[in-house]
Amino acid sequence: MLSCVVLASVAPRQVVLGHRESFHRLVRLIRSQLHSEHPQIVSKTLQSLSSLVARRDINGPFISSLGRDVFNVIRPLVTGDDVVAKVKDITEDQLPVIQDGFKTLEVLVTVADEKRKFSLVSLLTQSLCRLLCASSADEWRLLSQPARRIHEFALQRLNAVAPSWPVEFKQVLASHPVLKKQLESALLFQSSRQVQAQQVAKAKAVAESKNAHLSQQPTIKLTMDFNAFGKAAS
């Protein structure tokens, strides 16, 4: 599959889209890999698909055929009433799949025309906000390492989405006050963690500097010639 996608990503447009049956075979192949039970295969497929989607002269048919399949990769995690519970249960194997799914979705937003851009930014923003699961130290301590990484990944991508599509981003948050509050709380907690980490690092540096200074101090040796006392006594 990977070799087919690599070929399609560099071949002339007529070669990729000129033969209808070959195109549909490639689409079916990619779709079957996106639904694989093996996370590594799904992750590699998403990475390969991103290269096709990024190519503007051929991406239209691929987006129309596979765009829904891309979102279906992350849909189970970001929909429903138990999203936080599902994020907390995420495994190391699932992490790359979720991350690559969102990265591919970002590429879709980048190449989308103006008519579709807002709906895709909205989908991306809402989905990322729903991955946020810590706004306090107590909540953070209860998270597994994979859950912490997906939380930080969501914040990182939201910080990238905001300046890339500022108008659409603000409109989405204005329409979803609960998600806006969730994002603000997560950002505030992130800021407090960064300040705390800086303070710890500064205190550690000061302590190390003091220890280094003390170790460099010359050692004072006190000596006395007691022979003089003996002579005085005699």
Automatic annotation (TrEMBL):
Protein name per its UniProtKB record: HEAT repeat protein
Q: Which GO terms describe its cellular component?
A: cytosol; endocytic vesicle; Golgi apparatus; membrane
Q: Name one GO biological process term.
A: endocytosis
Return the InterPro entries for the record: Laa1/Sip1/HEATR5
Q: Which organism is it from?
A: Teladorsagia circumcincta (Brown stomach worm)
Cite the source lineage: Eukaryota, Metazoa, Ecdysozoa, Nematoda, Chromadorea
- The source's superkingdom equals Eukaryota
